């Protein structure tokens, strides 16, 4: 399980405390504060703190003339306009801080988004837990034959069993060696900062991750995409549900124009116009590469 009894008790204590505030709060986020949302076999995501709401976005956008005439409809329309035209600064007025527990190889993908504040669990100071990500059988897949970054058919039978056993035994053996190198029983023991180097990339780490809404949307646009690696996508999916409770108007606009939308090149737009005009366009006459043509056909059918 992602949480130990002691960690759950700490969360219960945090949720039992209540503080009066004059700042904007969101009921959906208040309900989520400190709660752990389980991800993968040992991972979690939980909200530690947040700042701002949908109104903070429109307030920033309207700063030149104050509140003016406003209503829910006006707020929604303004937020959709900002999202549609790629305005970023108003969305930066909202921030969220998450506690995330995740496998190291997922963390190394995640950290490529360099627009957040991160403080990670230190294996120089502390001993890592014996927790490793072991994929469920349905997520054990062969290398894709058409995508160098993706997966192909799911492994089955003896091959799947062999791979699972290898993953488990390698992780256990590495941790046994990690513990023995740290041991103080009659020996000096290796420094933690050196002993950790023998651990595999599926060991779990954790961090506090603070990011503004604009950069969070960029993260979600890439990592909640169906083509993203499964192990990071499930974290993005959980965060999407959290953001939906936090800033529902902004999330709806994000879903409309980013997650559910498509961006076309100038050549692709010209191809679509030719098709609308009744011209029969093929890949050979389109001016697009085979891959670009395939992506366009995926959008327009």
From TrEMBL:
**Where, by residue number, does FAD bind?**
89, 112-114, 120, 212-214, 218
Which cofactors does this protein require? FAD
Methyltransferase found in the keyword field: yes
User: Which molecular-function annotation in GO is an example for this chain?
Assistant: thymidylate synthase (FAD) activity
The pathway entry for this protein reads as:
Pyrimidine metabolism; dTTP biosynthesis
Q: Which residues bind dUMP?
A: 109-112, 120-124, 196, 223
What are its GO biological-process terms? dTMP biosynthetic process; dTTP biosynthetic process; methylation
Active-site positions on this chain: 223
EC numbers listed for it are 2.1.1.148
Key word Cell inner membrane present in the record? no
What this protein catalyses is:
dUMP + (6R)-5,10-methylene-5,6,7,8-tetrahydrofolate + NADPH + H(+) = dTMP + (6S)-5,6,7,8-tetrahydrofolate + NADP(+)
> Superkingdom of the source?
Bacteria
Subunit (UniProt): Homotetramer.
Q: What does this protein do?
A: Catalyzes the reductive methylation of 2'-deoxyuridine-5'-monophosphate (dUMP) to 2'-deoxythymidine-5'-monophosphate (dTMP) while utilizing 5,10-methylenetetrahydrofolate (mTHF) as the methyl donor, and NADPH and FADH(2) as the reductant.
What name does UniProt use for this protein? Flavin-dependent thymidylate synthase
Q: Which organism is it from?
A: Palleronia pontilimi
Q: What is the lineage of its organism?
A: Bacteria, Pseudomonadati, Pseudomonadota, Alphaproteobacteria, Rhodobacterales
Its gene is: thyX
């Amino acid at each position: 399980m992602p949480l130990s009894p002691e960690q759950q008790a700490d969360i219960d204590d945090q949720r039992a405390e209540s503080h009066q505030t004059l700042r904007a709060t969101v009921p959906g986020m208040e309900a989520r504060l400190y709660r752990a949302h389980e991800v993968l076999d040992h991972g979690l995501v939980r909200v530690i703190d947040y700042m701002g709401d949908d109104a903070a976005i429109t307030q920033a956008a309207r700063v030149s003339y104050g509140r003016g005439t406003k209503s829910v409809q006006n707020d929604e329309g303004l937020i959709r306009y900002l999202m549609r035209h790629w305005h970023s600064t108003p969305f930066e007025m909202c921030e969220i801080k998450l506690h995330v527990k995740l496998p190291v190889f997922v963390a190394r993908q995640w950290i490529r988004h360099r627009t957040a504040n991160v403080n990670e669990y230190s294996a120089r100071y502390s001993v890592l837990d014996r927790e490793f990500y072991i994929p469920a059988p349905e997520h054990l897949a062969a290398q894709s034959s058409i995508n160098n970054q993706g997966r192909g058919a799911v492994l089955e039978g003896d091959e799947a069993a062999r791979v699972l056993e290898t993953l488990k035994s390698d992780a256990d053996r590495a941790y046994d060696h990690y513990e023995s190198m740290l041991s103080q029983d009659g020996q000096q023991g290796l420094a933690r900062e050196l002993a950790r180097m023998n651990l595999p990339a599926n060991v779990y780490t954790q961090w506090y991750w603070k990011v503004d809404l604009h950069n969070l949307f960029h993260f979600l646009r890439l990592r909640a995409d169906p083509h993203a690696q499964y192990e990071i996508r499930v974290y993005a999916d959980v965060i999407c549900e959290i953001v939906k409770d936090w800033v529902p108007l902004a999330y709806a606009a994000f879903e409309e124009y980013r997650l559910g939308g498509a961006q076309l090149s100038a050549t692709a737009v010209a191809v679509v116009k030719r098709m609308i005009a009744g011209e029969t366009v093929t890949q050979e006459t389109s001016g697009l590469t085979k891959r670009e043509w395939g992506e366009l056909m995926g959008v327009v059918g």
